[in-house]
Amino acid sequence: MGTQTTIEKLEILADAAKYDASCASSGTSKRNSTGGKGIGSTEGMGICHAYAPDGRCISLLKILLTNHCVFDCHYCVNRKSSNVRRARFTPQEVVDLTLSFYRRNYIEGLFLSSGIVKSSNHTMEQLVEVARMLREEHDFRGYIHLKTIPEADPELVHQAGLYADRVSINVELPTDAGLTRLAPDKNARQIEGAMGKLKSDIVEAKDNRKRFRHAPRFAPAGQSTQMIVGADAATDADIVGKASRLYDSFRLRRVYYSAFSPIPDASAVLPLKRPPLIREHRLYQSDWLMRFYGYQPSEVMQATEADGNLPLDIDPKLAWALKFRERFPVDVNRASKEQLLRVPGLGVRAVGRILASRRHRTMRLEDVAKLTVSIAKVRPFIVTADWRPVLLTDRADLRALLAPKQEQLELFAA
């Protein structure tokens, strides 16, 4: 095979990075070069690859350093036994691409991952070198997310945190049994050990920043991880339980869920079909319930069906409300914030506005309707000054009434 051009490498390694979902840039500290020093910024608008919590588009150059790999994880398109085109960047090439794309206003930051080439330590050294060159040699102040390698020396992973805004280590699969079966080169205890070390380093750096003004920052946007959904027999209840434990144990900023996607020349131990994408969406909704709505993991698990999976036709918040109808209806003029957050169709912002408005006036149904997308979804679960659901909350066909209607889209609709 002849020498590959940078464009050919970029085509291969950008495509290979598409399976990694964990590239949001929320939580980083604000930096910019408006004072005439350095280059880049963690703020601004551009071509979108990810979204910050406030809705801003964050453009990231998302690539692999290489898709060569000495591991043979069954679910990975870049595994050792896979028959795919291979490519490899040098650290200097990644730096040049990042700066070139930034100057053209294509990107605002870099998301860099890699297959394992030669050894975990060698690959980690290359990843750290990219970040070091950007920060120290080019004074790059944009966003950097490094996907670190749990098998690498802890000191190398620590160096990654000194240069990157966010660091992440993928747990890969929800259960230890699934990891052993589908990723024989990986070890669950080693992965969680590396995540624990990152957590300790982040906590120590924050403490040092409080005591010493010039103490170095360490991964100011925290750490995240990713789980593959549907590659093994793990249920949604298993995944929710694992995610909750990861949040509690390692103070993660995010757990990302990636629906398994069939790959070329797939291993015989993998499913023949991908799970419905809506399953991934339901898991993100359940994650939101635990993070922002005060639900305990056990409560989210109560919303699952008999097979341990969340229903696909309705969201988990509605599924929980239908199972616990004795908790409803709630009076929007008297209920606590915690009770209102349980009402299907009411989001955090809507609940905040209800609490603010009812200090000055008695809330009516039309007032609530202005705060939600679908008042029909809310009506069975609330009481207002002019509305009481009476028997609606207990109707046997309530789920069918509230489930989104399935309709065939028209190809040539006007």
From TrEMBL:
InterPro entries to which the protein is assigned, alphabetical: Aldolase_TIM (IPR013785), DNA_rSAM_put (IPR023874), Elp3/MiaA/NifB-like_rSAM (IPR006638), Endo/Exo/Phosphatase_dom_1 (IPR051675), rSAM (IPR007197), rSAM_sf (IPR058240), RuvA_2-like (IPR010994)
SMART domains hit by this protein: Elp3
Superkingdom as given in the UniProt entry: Bacteria
Domain Elp3/MiaA/NifB-like radical SAM core: 59-286
Xref: Gene3D superfamilies: Aldolase class I, Photosystem II 12 kDa extrinsic protein
Cofactor names: [4Fe-4S] cluster
Keyword flag S-adenosyl-L-methionine: yes
Pfam family, any one: Radical_SAM
Molecular function terms from GO: catalytic activity; iron-sulfur cluster binding; metal ion binding
UniProt keywords, alphabetically: Iron, Iron-sulfur, Metal-binding, S-adenosyl-L-methionine
Name recorded for this polypeptide: Elp3/MiaA/NifB-like radical SAM core domain-containing protein
Lineage: Bacteria, Pseudomonadati, Pseudomonadota, Alphaproteobacteria, Sphingomonadales
